[in-house]
What does this fold into?
Amino acid sequence: MIAAADLSPAYDLIVIGGGPAGLAAASLAARAGLSTVLFDENPGVGGQIYRGITSTPVKNGTVLGEDYWAGAALASEAKASGASIVNGATVWTLDPSLAVGISIAGKARLVQAGRVIIATGALERPFPIPGWTLPGVMTAGAAQTTLKAQGLVPSGRTVLAGCGPLLWLLAAQLLRAGVKIEAMLETSSRRNWLRALPHLPDFLLSPYWRKGLGLMREVKAAVPVIPVQKLAATGAGKLKEVVYVSGGSERRLLADLLLLHHGVVPNVNLAMAAGAAHRWNERQLCFVPELDDDFGSSVPGIAIAGDGAGIAGGTAAAERGRIAAIAAVRALKPEASVPAPQVVRQKLAREEMGRAFLDVIYRPSDSFRRPEGDTIVCRCEEVTAQQVRATADMGCEGPNQMKAFLRSGMGPCQGRLCGLTVTELIAEQRRVSPAEVGYYRLRPPVKPITLAELASLPIGEAERKAVER
Amino acid sequence: MFKRLHDTPTVTIKVNGQTVRARSGDTVAAALLAAGIDHCRTTPVTGAPRAPYCLMGVCFDCLVTIDGIGNRQGCLVPVREGMEVATQVGKREAGR
Amino acid sequence: MAASEYDVVVVGGGLVGAATAWGLAREGCRVALLDEGDRAVRASRGNFALVWVQSKGLGLAAYAGWTIRSSEAWAGFAGLLKDETGLDVCFQRPGGFHLALSEKELEARANVLKRLHNQPGIVDYKTEILDHSQVAKMLPDIGPEVVGASYCSLDGHVNSLRLFRTLHQAIHARGVAYLPSHRVDDIRREGGTFRLFTPQGEVRAGRVALAAGNANMRLAPMVGLEAPMKPERGQIVVTERLRPFLNYPVVTLRQTDEGTVMIGDSKEEGTDPARLTLGVAATEAERAVRQFPLLANVNVVRTWSAIRVMTGDGFPIYDESETHPGAFVLCCHSGVTLAANHALTVAPMIARGALDKSLVAPFSARRFHVQEAA
It folds into this structure.
């Protein structure tokens, strides 16, 4: 394990995140001769999609499927490339001057980059239903993560709910691992089909549809798939029942585990705190960074690759990482040989084809994104939908004033699990677009560090005088 | 809630003083889930029980005390032989 | 010309503006409160929440008296707000500390206090210099490097974000027209009516009170007033919620009722609230750990920087216009400490149409010209 003190003071390229985008970017850059370090906060590389790729105890290849095992090549290429790969390393700040703040085993350090590629990927969209904070309610991604990394599978009565490709994939993986799934509660609206039709031709040309249909067939053969319009988790201190409305009538399912999923959205915290401009994407219902053709952000020297650049999936993420890395090599070492970018761009275009169809067909309904009443919106500070709505009605126009008034977004998760919901609730109350409402202003540290770590950083004379008077 | 596909625990940790068998490669959060511990903390706001939610470092619901240091993200810390884990009640105590 | 829709329009929706608007509404005025939007440069979202007396007034003795007046009124003010909204802003006045980490710092502190209290006309209040063991009796968790402190029993603190919310909830309940995203571009006085022009249209009122923080510098000349400002950047570090360990506010470190610890009090030049100077945050953290070593492994969950509302000499400005009768300006750094005065003393003056010179004459901006002449 590499300690903070072992790091060089500076690298040509710092890659943040060890998923497909980060691994591909680090490999390409290191092989082109850039001094490259990849920081990843998890115990091993792979990101979420290839979680545990070098260490998974799940040796039966069919459980996780061939798309998962494709990650092994990326990981071994990165290892062989000469890039330093540092796991257990949390990046907590990224300055516009490209100083990267890192924390490893409780020790903080600032490391200077010539270029930075943020490859922090995605997280699951908030799924604020009544009872979603109860023990026994988790994200589908969480169940998939622990299946991949630790070989853990649900053991009691298990219900899946939501929509999106990952939910079908997880269901299939759990079934292959011998798990019984009580039901899959499908939240996507039938009306999405009509809106998605214009995107169907592209989708049929993409690799998704054949895989998707296969997964759906596999799951439907073993699990009741029930369309639902309302959803709640109930129980005293832990999940006892999943309550849902299907076709106008309310039903209850006894459950030990409810796995929620409404697609994934870019993990914007580090990029926004670094000052990268973002805009609202109405089709993906999230904020995405403003990027040039090389995935360069509005902050010079910082690129954002992978799903953090807008959701496109794991294989597209690797191509995006390569494009960003090629740009970094060209900027820092123009004489080095790199793959032809147009070839990579063509691959990327093929991978991104069909995404629009998935975005539209699996667009979560308004009622699942814009909760009401006592439903908790901010899990950390336990702020409810009703409080946010009432405060917006009082004239509170945006998430930053909301944060000051209600503390939503002020807890340790720093808005990751409430930001989009708060923006959308304010937008609904004000009858304006989320684009107009905007997002939380984010600042370092984007992940907590201790006071002692902060205190250990270099302090200049003027900086000391700004405090000691 | 969870069971192991391959029952190969190799590491012993303590959770609230009780011995729990874990697998090398587990995170603390995964070890708690595999051991059937139904919540890892109560919130500092209302005292509601919480358990791991995202297992990928973003939700901060799996906060536990590890080797005497409170509010650590259990899903990011690998288990180690002899590690002492404690579930949390409400706010953390300064100095712990 | 159409009749004014409002008796008074207050410009600025921060703590000074909201407290003034609430005070005016209590006096029975029809009030509009014009504010900027969500990303406004807003000191009220970034302050340190002290209701602070010690060391106020060096250079302007009347400021000490004005501060004590608000400090004394604060408990009643908090009670009125609680009656109206049900919200507790958690005002506490246990006395407060200014910790010194070296003999040199303690000596400098003692000198400031000596000069302050030697001023002619200063109100008599007690600030003590305590040594390490005296401080440790009240703050048992201080580190060995704390050589001593100044302590004043009049000091206190409040939950200032809840105060901000509570004032807004209270003015909403009292029917004040809160108009966000109404940045004022121009103000004209015609036929006894003030016309305020904003991108969202015009707002008219019989009187206008400018409480727009550093933006008063731009607005005051529109109504024949002046507000020389010297904005300053400050940064604050905030920890996760902890069980109560600190029963008194320290001028650079306090535990909120929610349990978080706020660490701060930096001063830098600059007007960009989005910037964070890491070395400044590091200095704050380093001093905090020396003051309270048990905080060393506590997690920092947030930092922020904000722009202090600072007048040219650091003291408040309260003025009324001679050329534009009915126009008032309020500027001050201590929007929390002085909130009770703004709501319960200044607002009624504006409602009556004239400032009470016996209370606020020393705070006229004319003092800047007197100094120039001298």
